[in-house]
Amino acid sequence: MGAEIVECRRRNDVDELLAKFFELHVVRWRSEGVESRFAEPQMQAFMQGFCALAADNGWFRGYTLRDGGKTDGVLIAFHFGPEAYFYQIARDAGSRVLNAGMMLITASIEQAIRESLTRYDFLRGDESYKFRLAKSSSQQATVMIGVRRPATTAVATELLSQRFKCIASRLLGDDRWTRLKDRLRGRRAARSAALGSTTGANP
Fold it and tell me: Distance between CA atoms of 120 and 75, rounded to whole angstroms?
């Protein structure tokens, strides 16, 4: 039996799909030395609650790639009004299926076309595949105004940080930049957890 993609939109199927999504995402990024944000119980609870609500309202679209009974990838998207929104994808890096991630994305886009939606939005992110598949992109702008010295210093620091991120992304490429961001995020989370445990400890 070859590979197949199964669509999920019923609430009764959401929990099973999410469980496999969490598993694949966590295993994939741990293999890169990075802790997935979907390993956090709070994030999992939020996803389960929101996706159940979305399924009840007809917004949820989940896609599972199976190869010989084994789940090799999961994609989560949402349809709302005339638009489809790509949210996240998780896949098995050891899958035998060629371009498993692109197969899932293609299935999601094709379903949006079948439903006569007018726009497929990849949301935030500068991954190269998004620019290969999209006809146009929307720029996001953040306006920061500092009046007093501490505020102007904070604004200048943030601008330098954003400039560094832009340069690093171009130099490292999509995959290496994503791994670096997640590694730094994991270190910040670990420091916060350590600080919290120290603060809450008895003297």
Answer: 14
Query: Is residue 188, in this structure, part of any structural domain at all?
Result: no
Query: What is the CATH number for 66?
Result: 3.40.630.30
Can you give the length of the chain in residues? Answer: 203
Structure tokens of 166? 């832009």
Residue 201 within any structural domain of the chain: no
User: What's the start-to-end Cα distance of the chain, in Å?
Assistant: 62
For residue 48, the enclosing domain spans 1-140
Per-residue pLDDT of the chain (203 residues; tens, 9 = 90+): 577 888 888 888 888 899 999 989 988 888 777 788 888 888 889 999 999 999 999 999 999 888 877 878 899 999 999 999 988 888 887 777 678 788 899 889 999 999 999 988 887 766 666 766 666 666 666 676 767 777 777 767 766 666 666 666 667 776 676 777 667 666 665 665 565 555 444 43
What pTM does this model have? 0.66
In a domain, 22, yes or no: yes
Rounded CA separation 54/198 (Å): 39
3-class state of residue 191 by DSSP: helix
